[in-house]
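for the recovery benchmark. tokens below, seq after
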């Protein structure tokens, strides 16, 4: 990361693009840092393309469904003005019913509906805005106002243009606009490039899908499709403690087919000893800095050997997985070896039968408060690596994405037990199946009112399939600079593409890499998204940090922050930005300039 100049941010007239959880946490930390920021921030304008501010796309009732779960419990959510569980406890029975929340006592470790979490965020948003207004900061809310473009003036100001071509000028902007689903649907062929908004894939009232429905992916998004469609094509009942699914008589041929490359279903929800992640829980700042080589790189295998291995040894001992402990004691047992070993433990001839077995362990963990230490520890360690990923060379970015990431997402994006019960009920009713193999779309994929796919298995076999309804749940793809949503910033060179240099100088290594870019005569690997410094200042085409433009949209920053997932990352990212402002004002310090500065902030802040 390059940072030639340091100009302090002018926060007098601040724009925030987006009003979802990341923006809400940003506003929360502005409020908690008012002792320093009050004299600097005079006005905050919040842009939101939807009618209601302060919910976020995944939790908005126009985007999600009453049957979709939040996939996170209250104890895992960084507290705003009050916890999610406490907010639920304050709601009356009628409100809880509308939010699809049961009347039984609210549990901090329980997972509730996604729309209920959206209403919680909305109330917290309103409360924080009231506090900021009471403190004397002018707040402007811009509902139904989609930002179409942002341009830079030579006075280091930004002009924001909305979709109606209205323009406003600001001293600093923070991009926090969350999820963007811009891929094209082919409705005539029954193909949807994403499940969102979920209502677009639902049958009209009184109608049914009496055929097979396909999904690309078996992720948490795919299970949103599963829950939404299954509740509309049958009934779930409890019999002797087991969930039973009975198909609607009008849809005897209804069935959901999940397509997953490896044929995996996610690991299940587990009890955690420490539900909130910490960057330096298992090692300290000095230990991390000591691993940086003379060329400025942190090698991922060194990170695994020196920092992960000791913590994981302790975790696997606590879990009683002595075969893994024995392997980890071997010096040549690598990160990749661990992934392969734990993957093998999760692989089953029939993933649904495997889920049945894992359900016993998961239920015991959650109901009896018995942590599964290795999962929690691995998540902690990858969370920490994420906030130092700018130190990784190109080779390790490639390794992380090709060998590690799919395993991590399968392990860490844990499926709530309620969702697992639904899946198993559908499996017993022969209303769901899982097909392993990579999905390809032929040239005529979207012709003749159906979606055609070709499924290629690891054994080299292929199968042609057709669906009347097929939903792509594969998530966000790599963001190219040309697809950055604010074209003037690209054209003006205000933002640049993220990249990583190579640790090995051999010509062979560089030729093996795809997507190379050149920087000062040296080849680098192009990463997803845009370049930024450690405090989320965007980096311009000259390699200089922009003090007037911050981007905390995880899609935009995924190249240099590849493991930023969930609400804890929303909170941490926003806190880093606000702390960087505070350090500028109070200490005349640029925390994003060097790894020593940013890691000092990580170490000093309890919330990180």
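predicted aa per position
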């Amino acid at each position: 990361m390059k940072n030639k100049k340091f100009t302090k941010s002018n926060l007098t007239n601040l724009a925030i693009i987006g009003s979802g959880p990341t923006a809400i946490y940003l506003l929360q930390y502005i409020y908690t840092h008012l002792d320093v920021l009050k004299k600097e921030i005079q006005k905050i304008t919040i842009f939101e393309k939807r009618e209601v501010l302060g919910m976020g796309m995944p939790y908005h009732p126009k985007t999600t469904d009453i049957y979709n779960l939040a996939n996170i419990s209250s104890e895992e959510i960084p507290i705003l003005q009050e916890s999610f569980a406490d907010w639920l406890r304050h709601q009356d029975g009628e409100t809880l019913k509308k939010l699809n929340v049961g009347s039984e006592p609210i549990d901090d470790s329980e997972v509730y509906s996604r729309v209920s979490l959206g209403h919680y965020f909305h109330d917290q948003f309103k409360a924080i805005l009231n506090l900021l207004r009471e403190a004397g900061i002018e707040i402007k809310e811009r509902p139904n106002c989609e930002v179409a473009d942002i341009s830079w003036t030579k006075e280091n100001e930004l002009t924001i243009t909305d979709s109606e071509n209205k323009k406003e000028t600001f001293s600093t902007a923070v991009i926090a606009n969350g999820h963007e689903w811009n891929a094209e649907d082919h409705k005539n062929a029954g193909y949807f490039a994403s499940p969102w908004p979920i209502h677009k894939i639902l049958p009209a009232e009184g109608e049914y899908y009496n055929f097979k429905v396909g999904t690309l992916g078996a992720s948490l998004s795919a299970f949103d499709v599963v829950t939404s469609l299954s509740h509309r094509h049958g009934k779930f009942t409890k019999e002797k403690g087991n969930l039973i699914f009975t198909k609607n008589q009008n849809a005897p041929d209804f069935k959901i087919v999940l397509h997953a490359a490896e044929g995996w279903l996610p690991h299940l929800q587990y009890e955690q000893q420490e539900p909130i992640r910490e960057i330096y829980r298992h090692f300290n700042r000095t230990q991390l800095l000591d691993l940086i080589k003379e060329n400025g790189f942190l090698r991922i295998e060194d990170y695994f050997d020196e920092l992960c291995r000791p913590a994981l040894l302790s975790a696997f001992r606590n879990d009683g997985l002595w075969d893994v402990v024995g392997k980890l004691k071997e010096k040549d047992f690598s990160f990749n070896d661990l992934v392969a070993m734990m993957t093998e433990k999760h692989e089953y001839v029939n993933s649904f039968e495997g889920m049945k077995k894992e359900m016993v362990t998961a239920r015991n963990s959650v109901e009896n408060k018995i942590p599964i230490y290795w999962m929690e520890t691995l998540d902690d360690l990858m969370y920490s690596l994420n906030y130092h990923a700018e130190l990784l060379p190109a080779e390790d970015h490639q390794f992380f994405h090709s060998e590690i990431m799919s395993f991590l997402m399968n392990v860490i994006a844990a499926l709530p037990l309620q969702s697992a019960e639904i899946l198993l009920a559908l499996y017993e009713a022969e209303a769901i199946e899982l097909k392993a193999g990579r999905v390809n779309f032929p040239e005529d994929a979207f012709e003749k009112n159906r979606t055609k796919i070709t499924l290629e298995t690891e054994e080299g076999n292929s199968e042609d399939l057709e669906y009347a309804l097929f939903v792509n749940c594969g998530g966000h793809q790599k963001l190219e600079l040309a697809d950055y949503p604010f074209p003037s910033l690209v054209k003006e060179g205000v933002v640049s593409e993220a990249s990583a240099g190579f640790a090995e100088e051999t010509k062979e290594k560089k030729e093996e890499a795809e997507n190379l870019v050149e920087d000062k005569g040296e080849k680098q690997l192009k990463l997803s998204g845009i370049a930024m410094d450690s405090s989320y200042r965007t980096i311009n085409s000259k390699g200089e940090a922009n003090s007037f433009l911050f981007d905390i949209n995880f899609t935009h920053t995924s190249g240099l922050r590849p493991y930023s997932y969930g609400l804890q990352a929303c909170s941490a990212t926003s806190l880093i930005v606000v702390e960087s402002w505070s350090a500028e004002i109070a200490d005349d310090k640029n925390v994003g300039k060097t790894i020593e500065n940013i890691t000092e902030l990580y170490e000093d802040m309890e919330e990180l």
